[in-house]
Structures are given as C-alpha cells and as structure tokens.
Design brief:
Layout (H helix, E strand, L loop, with lengths): L6 H8 L4 H16 L7 H15 L8 H11 L3 H6 L7 H24 L6 H4 L7 H5 L2 H12 L5 H7 L20 H7 L4 H14 L11 H9 L7 H22 L2
Helix pairs in contact: 1-6, 2-6, 12-14
Length: 259
C-alpha cells in the first residue's frame, strides 16, 4: 500500500485492535480473577486495601491501581459490576468484556474514518473492524492496487488534486475530458474511456455468477460495493480477480493520456 495510506485504512483492512484495548481487556480479566480469590490470599488483601483507599479518595487517585480498572469498567457501562463485585456465572463475563471492548474500539475507529474526507468511499465499503480476505489471498501488487482504490490514496485526480490544493470541483477527469470529477466511482463505473474494459468486466461477472445477470442495472452504490466492497456471497474471490483485471487495463489506458 502507499506510504500515504491513512492509519484508519491500515487498521480497518487488517482488523487491528489498539494495544490499549488489549491492555484494558487483560486488566479486567485479571481484576475478575482477583475478586474470585480466597480472602486469605495476599493479592486479594492488597487489592481490598487499595480499593478502600480509592473509595475514600472519591475515586480520583490515578496512581491507585483501582482507578484505571474502575474507569475502564465505567466506560464499558459495567460500573455496577465494579460496585457489587459480582460477576456473571461461568465465562460469560470475559466474553461480555471482550465484546464491549471490541465494540468500543470499532466505534472509535468509525468516528475517525468519518472525520477524513478522503475516506468518502471507504466508509461506504467498510463498517466493521475485521481482517479483509483479500489481504491474505492476493499477491502484493494486487493487494496494493485494491487497498489504494478502497482507501482513497491513489493516482486519481480526486486525490492528486487534493495534494495541489484544488477544490473538489476542479479535480475533473483529464482522460475523458467530460468535466466529471475523477473519483473512484467515475474510474470504475462511468469514465467512457474504459467502456470496453468495463463491459467485458460485467460480462465476465455475469458468466461467473448467474445470480448477477442484471449487475449493470444495479444502483451505482450497490455496484461499487459489489466490485470493491463486500462482494457477493461466496464469490468474492472470483469477483475480485475480474475487477483487478479491469483496474489494471484501465490504468494502462489512463497512462497513455496522463504522464
């Protein structure tokens, strides 16, 4: 991928969680073990002593181990479990904490994606913080091309024009000269200079997947998601290969007009 690929895209495509989230999860798991210990255990006694000091200090002492444990539980809306020290039976608590930490991480990631204008397409394609199959399945160059197109860091004028300080309306396609902004949607679905390659792409998709007989009549948002987003059921790999072939040919044509 490009060195200018945003942190949010890297995190999203790899499904990475922050180290801080992992640390929070381990802290709460350790706390749950402590409160289930026998009362004569030294670790339990130290914890109870520090807890008393923490409560007396009105839960404001950041140097107290209990502060961050309490804060994390509060952020996960589990403050009542901190107060009662009563955990759900079995392994349900660990599963619950894992789910809530994951959701919190995902919400923060989505919020960061929403703040960046260059991720206008990415936020329509990606809504969950999970590893994308293509990252594992494709070779380096194909993976790079798909990531750059999905993540907004590519050679299209919608991106290169941003580097030059052009307004979005000024970033028109210099290949077809039709005054349309050269963004990802234009490149994949609309530019008339790639009409033969695009028709061949849709023809191959129809032949590969009979259910997509009317793929060319879909709304553009659906088409874009099908081609570089969620794909189609169990045929994602086949569609990706067809689309990547189109991308390669379209870029070859583009290079003839734009040096």
């Amino acid at each position: 991928m490009s060195k200018m690929t945003t942190r949010e895209v890297i995190q999203g495509e790899l499904g990475l969680e922050k180290v801080s989230s992992r640390r929070s999860l381990l802290r709460i798991r350790f706390w749950s073990k402590i409160i289930k210990m026998k009362k004569n255990r030294l670790v339990y006694k130290v914890y109870k002593k520090r807890r008393e000091e923490f409560i007396k200090g009105e839960k404001k002492d950041k140097k107290n181990w209990c502060y961050w444990t309490f804060t994390i539980l509060k952020e996960l809306s589990l403050e009542h479990i901190w107060e009662s020290e009563k955990l759900p039976l079995g392994k349900n608590f660990n599963k619950l904490v894992n789910k809530l930490v994951k959701r919190k991480e995902e919400d923060e990631w989505l919020a960061n994606v929403a703040k960046k204008s260059k991720l206008r397409v990415y936020r329509k394609l990606k809504s969950r913080l999970v590893l994308e199959d293509y990252v594992i399945e494709l070779d380096r160059e194909k993976r790079r091309q798909l990531t750059m197109l999905r993540g907004g860091t590519n050679k299209l004028r919608i991106e290169t024009g941003r580097w030059r300080g052009e307004s979005e309306e000024e970033r028109v396609c210099n290949v077809c000269l039709c005054q349309d902004v050269e963004n990802e949607k234009h490149f994949i679905l609309a530019c008339p200079m790639y009409v033969i390659e695009r028709a061949n792409m849709f023809h191959r998709i129809r032949e590969e997947i009979s259910e997509l007989e009317y793929v060319e009549n879909m709304e553009e948002e659906w088409q874009l998601n099908l081609l570089i987003g969620i794909g189609w059921r169990k045929n994602n790999k086949e569609i990706r290969e067809i689309v990547l072939d189109y991308i390669k040919k379209a870029y070859e044509i583009r290079r003839r007009y734009i040096k």
